[in-house]
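User: Small ask, check this?
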Amino acid sequence: MNNRPGFLLLLFFTIILSSCVSKKLTKQAYELEQAGMITEAADHYYRALLRKNNNVDAMIGLKRTGQVVLENKLNNFYDAYLNNQVELAVNDYLDAREYEENVGELGVGLVFPQKYDEYYQEVKSTHLSEKYKQGYRLLQEERFREAAEVFRDIIILEDDYKDVKALYNEARNEPDYRAALEAMDQDKYRMAYDLFNIILNRAGNYKNSEVLKAKALEEGRVTVELLPVKDLARQPVLARAIYSELQSRLSRLRNPFIQLMDPENPGKAKATLTCELQKYSARTGPLQTKRKKGFLKQEYKVKDPETGMEETRTKYHKVYYQEYEKENSVSIILSYKMVSANTKEVLVSERFTANEEDRLHYAEFKGGKGELLPGYWEYQNKASEKDDIHDNYRARSHLQQLLNNSRRIRGIESMLEEVIEDATINIAGKVNSYNPE
C-alpha cells in the first residue's frame, strides 16, 4: 500500500501547526517586549524561530531583544572581570558566547564587541593558572578524583594547556593502577586483570599496564588437562562421545582464565579434569495397543409429517477405535572433578544424572464419517442401561487431540545426543565459573 499521500497530508498539517504556533509566540514576545520583559521576550522570539525559521517578525524581534540580553550578559562578565572574580568571569563570558552562537544558528547575528574577547583571554589565562596549581596540589595529595575534575575543567577550556592531559590521565588511572598492583600482590590475578583492562580501555596505556595485564593473565590462568572418560558403565562408544563433546565445549569457552591444554602439544597443566561414566540405561518401550469402545455421532435431517418442517436429529453408532502408547528413555549417571596439579585440591566436582524421554500416545479410527466420541457400551447391537456416551466438550477435545497426535517418537540415538549435550554443557559451565578468588 502506498502511504505517500497520507505522509504528505501529515507533513502539511505539521507545517501549518508550526506556523500557527510561531505566529502566536511572536505575538506574545512582542507583548512581553512592550511590557519591558526583554529576556522573556527574546526567549519567545527564539522559540518562534525554532518553529518557523523564516518568520521575519520573529527574526527582527530577536535581533532587537537578543542584543539587549547579550549586552546584559557581557556586562555581568565585565563586572566580574573588574572585581577579579576570575572563575565567575570565565563562566559569564562562556555563557554570553554560547547565547550569541545559539542565536546565530537561527540566522540572527548579534554584535559581540572584540574587546570582551581580549578581556576573556586575560582572565582565562589567570583562571587556567590557578586551576592548574589547584589540580597539581590535589594530585600531590593523592586526592585523585578531585584532581581529575579540575584537570577535566582545564581541558574543556584549553585542551593543550601545558601537560594537563598527562596529569588528567594520571589522576584518573592511578587509583585503579594501585588497586591492580595490590591485587597482584594478593594473588588476585583476575581482579588485577580486570582493572588493568579498564585502564587500557580508558587511556590506551598507562605506565606498564599492558605488560602487567599479560602477567596477571599468565599467573591466573588455569590450564586444564582433560583426561579420557573412565568407562565404569562399559559403554566405550558413549564414553568417547562424551570426551569429544566436552573437549569441544571447553575449547570454545570465552574465558581467558580457563584454557584447555592441547593434547597434541602437551605442557604443564595446572589442573586435571576427570569424568566417570558410572551408569547408562536406555529403554525402547513396546508399542502398546488398546481396543477402545466409543460412539460415532451422526446428525441427519427428517421432515415433520404434520408441519412439513425439517428437524435435525442425532444418532449414535457403537464403534471400536484403537489407542497406541509407547515410551523411550535414556539416562546416564556421570561424575567429574577438577583437581589442582600442585596441591591435589579438588577445585570443582559434582555427580549428576542426565535424562531424556519421549512418549507416544495417539488414537486411530477407520470407521465411517461423523464425530467420534469416547464412552462405554456393553452390547454393540442392542441397547443397555450401562451404555455411557461422553458427549461433552472436555471428552470430545481429549479424544480429538489423541486422534491428531504425532505418530512419531524420538529414537534412542537422538535422545542420547541430547543427554551428552546436557551433560557436557553442565560440566563446561561449572569449569568456566571456577574462580579461586
Observations:
- Residues 30 and 230 are 91 Å apart (CA to CA).
- Residues 8-14 have pLDDT under 50 and may be disordered.
